[in-house]
Amino acid sequence: MKNILTKTLITATLSAAPLLAQVKGDVAVPYIPYEIKMGKGFDAVQANCLMCHSFGYIINQGPQSYEFWVKKTQKMIVHFKAPISKEDAKAVNDYLFEHYGNGKLK
Questions:
Q1: Nearest to 88, CA basis, from 38, 54, 53, 42
Q2: Cα(85)–Cα(91) distance, rounded to whole angstroms?
Q3: Pairwise CA distance, residues 31 & 49, whole Å
Q4: Is residue 37 a part of any domain in this protein?
Q5: Residue 55: exposure state from Cβ atoms within 10 A (0-12, 13-18, ≥19)
Q6: 3-state class of 87 per DSSP?
Q7: How far, in Å, CA of 89 to CA of 74, rounded?
Q8: What is the Cα–Cα distance from 46 to 52, expressed in whole angstroms?
Q9: CA pair distance 78, 65, nearest whole angstrom
Q10: Which of 1, 3, 27, 47 is the most buried (most CB within 10 A)?
C-alpha cells in the first residue's frame, strides 16, 4: 500500500511540475519547411499518410528501397490500422519510391 501511495505521489508531482513553469517573453516555435515533391500518387499519400503524421516523417526516412516503402506502408496498415486500400497502398509505395527512393528494389 505504501508503494502505491509513493508512486501516486511521485506521478502527481511530476504531472503538476510543468504547470508551475514560467517563461518570460514570447516563445518562438521553429518552422521547418519540408520539400514535398508533387507527382503521380501524391493524392494517395495526402489522403492516407498525412492525416496522421507530417511529411517530415516520410522525408526523415531518407532515400530507401521499394521494399522498405512497401514494408513501411504495411506497418501502417497492420500495426496502426491505417485504412489504406490495396490500390492506394501501391500508389503510395510507387510515389515514395519514385520521389524518395534510392533506386534499389531491395
A1: 42
A2: 10
A3: 21
A4: no
A5: middle
A6: helix
A7: 8
A8: 10
A9: 20
A10: 47
Phi-psi map region of 25: left, alpha, beta (phi>0 left; psi -120 to 50 alpha): left
Task: Residue 95: give its domain's CATH number.
Answer: 1.10.760.10
Q: How many CB atoms lie within 10 A of CB 99?
A: 19
Query: Which domain does 84 fall in, by range?
Result: 42-100
Q: Can you tell me which residue has the cell 494517395? A: 44
Q: Is residue 79 part of a domain?
A: yes
Task: Give long-range contacts, CB 8 A cutoff, 24+ apart: 81-85.
Answer: 82/48, 82/49, 82/52, 83/48, 84/48
Share the mean pLDDT of the chain.
90
The pLDDT tens digits for 57-68 are: 999 999 999 999
